[in-house]
Amino acid sequence: MYAYAKELKNAGRAGFIGISSHNTKIALEAVKSGKIEVLMFLVNPLFNLLPQDSADARMKGCAVAELSDEEKAAYPTKQELYAECEKRGIPIVAMKPFAAGNILKGSKGPISGLLELTPVQCVQYALSFPAVACPVPGFASVDELNQSLAWLTATEEEKDLSIISESLAGKFHGQCMYCNHCQPCPKSIDIAQVTKLADLAEKGLTDEIRSQYTALATHGGDCIRCGSCTKRCPFGIDAMGNMARAAAVFGC
């Protein structure tokens, strides 16, 4: 398939080679392969706040709890994917910015009420990630199209995203969602991954989990306790405490 895609590009019949994926792990592997030039991927606040391995579980047709600790440990964060795309200059076409309509005001979807955003806020959220080139919402009418195009002339107040943390903080208070909203860290610690590995290790430390932790460029023990992560967390997590916990579990 890739050879055929290259053939089409070389013949001038295709402009770019890319893939579309709902799976963070597959998408990151494709980006790191150096073979794609554009990625279509889900970008919306609801998806980004789900545990990182939930999409992988759905792809396998099982519950997240049924994934092995090794699979959970190896699962990349969405923040890691976005950062890799930005580093390599691979633009993201952000699909599902409305989360299938579930996060729009007035939605009657199966998870309506968790978030209530305007189309302008959804577009703004997607574009807040540097790697995102454009969002691609779905429309059922010209009026719905115009509601999204309103982003072009919207005020900063209309684009404000503070409602996201205000709406979700109470529902997930005290539970780390591995979302990396606590970033950036002055010591470049991948706070979400360190926390996730510490959580898994406390249930049963395996060689694979230790290997995943050791492979990180920085560790919980590198935390300088500046407190910036804890202040940014919308869910009231003691991120500094999690770094200390990881250092105690893994010894660094």
Describe the structure.
The protein has 252 residues and is an alpha/beta fold. It folds into 2 domains: 1-168, TIM Barrel, CATH 3.20.20; 173-252, no CATH class. 45% of the residues lie in helices and 7% in strands. It is built from 14 helices and 4 strands. It has helices at residues 2-10, 24-33, 45-48, 54-60, 69-74, 78-88, 119-127, 142-149, 156-159, 162-168, 191-203, 207-214, 228-232, 239-250, and strands at residues 18-21, 38-42, 92-95, 132-136. It has a 4-stranded parallel β-sheet with strand order 1-2-3-4. Helix 11 (191-203) packs antiparallel against helix 12. The protein is globular. It starts with a helix and ends with a helix.
Q: Count of DSSP E strands?
A: 4
The CATH homologous superfamily of the largest domain corresponds to: NADP-dependent oxidoreductase domain
Number of helices: 14
Shape: globular
CATH architecture type of the largest domain: Alpha-Beta Barrel
Portion of residues within helices = 40-55%
Low-confidence stretches: none
Structural class: alpha/beta
Question: Order of strands side by side in the largest beta sheet?
Answer: 1-2-3-4
Rg result: 19 Å
GO molecular function: iron-sulfur cluster binding; metal ion binding
Keywords: Iron, Iron-sulfur, Metal-binding
Protein name: 4Fe-4S dicluster domain-containing protein
InterPro entries: 4Fe4S_Fe-S-bd (IPR017896), 4Fe4S_Fe_S_CS (IPR017900), AKR2_Oxidoreductase (IPR053135), NAD(P)_OxRdtase_dom_sf (IPR036812)
